[in-house]
């Protein structure tokens, strides 16, 4: 922490009663509440679709757990003086250690959210080039997050040289590290937003799903805006009064995580969307155990074992799933399959109630 000049000390003394701690607590509570509700709704959606947790779901849960530790450490920094001027900090060791822990969990939470999105993309979009692009983005996101966490912990060696003036330490230019990490964060945010666009533009989907997709990407765009604004605050902060001057950056970080968690979970809400806003004229799905499920698709009767991924609209759609046994009643549908319990592609115009997940 930089040593304040006499004029800066005089300013802090003149504003000794200033406090933003209540605002920090409210911001943390709201953002954490949004994240918890987002992940719980994801769980409810999975139950409605009778689908088990996938890799992207597990990363969302890991992200929520990491955010819990982030919020806890963030509030601990408030206890040690965040939200007040630095001359009021009486336990510099506790302040720095709590700040380091919060920074580590911030970076890990961002990593978990983005990995959840990447694994969701990987499950939904089968194109080979798309998977290579996801792999490259995943490597960049993981490398940036891991390096940032190492820099958080090792910004000064030994660590206690930051609060013990009798110990000589070797410190990196941490402001430059934060700026570089912020730039990579903004780049990967925009990449995750833009990457699926070419595939989505070619989809023929119903208006309800178009609205869901648009709301998802509007939230993703909002996260990009928050990351960009946060980057400007990082550049503007000089580090003289960190317990006061760094509040805007830390609050934007919390908002970024909360909205990011919601944005990552929103595509999984399609079963919820269909459950509460089922269009008129759709065919109800019979509630059978997941081991032996039957579904009617306007003249088509199918029975299979395992999980179903059902999607449909009045547009022509392709339905991919793994069937055990198939019985076709009647209709002009085209069905192709190879052997028992293999991939089957059904192409037909139909309108049904969707129980799957994703877009």
UniProtKB/TrEMBL annotation:
Grouped into one coarse class, the protein's main location is membrane
Concerning InterPro entries, the annotation shows: Rhodopsin_dom_fungi, SAT4-like
Phylogenetic lineage: Eukaryota, Fungi, Dikarya, Ascomycota, Pezizomycotina
Locate the transmembrane regions by residue number: 22-45, 57-75, 95-120, 132-155, 175-200, 212-233
Alphabetized UniProt keyword annotations: Membrane, Transmembrane, Transmembrane helix
Q: Fetch the PANTHER family from UniProt.
A: INTEGRAL MEMBRANE PROTEIN-RELATED, PTH11-LIKE INTEGRAL MEMBRANE PROTEIN (AFU_ORTHOLOGUE AFUA_5G11245)
Ranges of residues in domain Rhodopsin:
41-274
An example of a Gene Ontology cellular component annotation for this protein is: membrane
Subcellular localization(s) per the UniProt record: Membrane
Establish whether keyword Transmembrane is in the entry. yes
Domain of life, source organism: Eukaryota
Answer yes or no on keyword Transmembrane.
yes
**What name has this protein been given in UniProt?**
Rhodopsin domain-containing protein
Name the species this protein comes from. Lepraria neglecta
Q: According to Swiss-Prot or TrEMBL, what is its membrane topology?
A: Multi-pass membrane protein
Family as reported in the entry's similarity comment: Belongs to the SAT4 family.
């Amino acid at each position: 922490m930089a040593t304040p000049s006499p004029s800066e000390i005089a300013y802090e003394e003149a504003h000794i009663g200033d406090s933003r701690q209540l605002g920090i607590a409210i911001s943390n509570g709201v953002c954490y509440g949004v994240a918890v509700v987002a992940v719980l709704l994801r769980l409810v959606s999975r139950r409605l679709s009778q689908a088990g947790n996938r890799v992207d779901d597990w990363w969302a849960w890991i992200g929520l757990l990491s955010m819990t530790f982030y919020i806890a450490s963030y509030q601990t920094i408030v206890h040690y003086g965040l939200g007040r001027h630095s001359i009021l900090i009486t336990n510099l060791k506790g302040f720095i250690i709590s700040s380091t822990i919060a920074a580590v969990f911030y970076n890990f939470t961002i990593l978990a959210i983005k990995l959840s999105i990447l694994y969701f993309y990987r499950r939904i979009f089968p194109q080979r080039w798309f998977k290579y692009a996801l792999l490259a983005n995943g490597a960049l996101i993981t490398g940036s997050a891991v390096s940032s966490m190492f820099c958080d912990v090792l910004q000064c060696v030994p660590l206690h040289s930051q609060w013990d003036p009798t110990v000589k330490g070797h410190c990196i230019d941490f402001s430059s590290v934060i700026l570089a990490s912020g730039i990579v964060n903004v780049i990967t945010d925009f990449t995750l937003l833009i990457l699926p666009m070419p595939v989505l533009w070619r989809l023929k989907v119903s208006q309800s799903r178009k609205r869901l997709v648009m709301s998802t990407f509007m939230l993703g765009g909002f996260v990009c805006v928050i990351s960009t604004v946060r980057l400007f605050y990082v550049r503007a902060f000089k580090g003289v009064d960190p317990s006061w001057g760094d509040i805007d950056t830390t609050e934007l970080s919390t908002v970024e995580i909360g909205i990011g968690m919601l944005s990552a979970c929103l595509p999984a809400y399609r079963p919820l969307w269909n459950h509460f806003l089922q269009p008129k004229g759709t065919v109800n799905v019979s509630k059978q155990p997941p081991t032996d499920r039957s579904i009617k698709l306007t003249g088509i009767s199918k029975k299979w074992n395992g999980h179903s991924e059902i999607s449909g609209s009045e547009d022509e759609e392709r339905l991919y799933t793994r069937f055990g046994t198939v019985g076709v009643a009647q209709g002009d549908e085209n069905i192709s399959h190879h052997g028992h319990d293999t991939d089957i592609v059904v192409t037909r115009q139909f309108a049904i109630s969707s129980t799957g997940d994703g877009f």
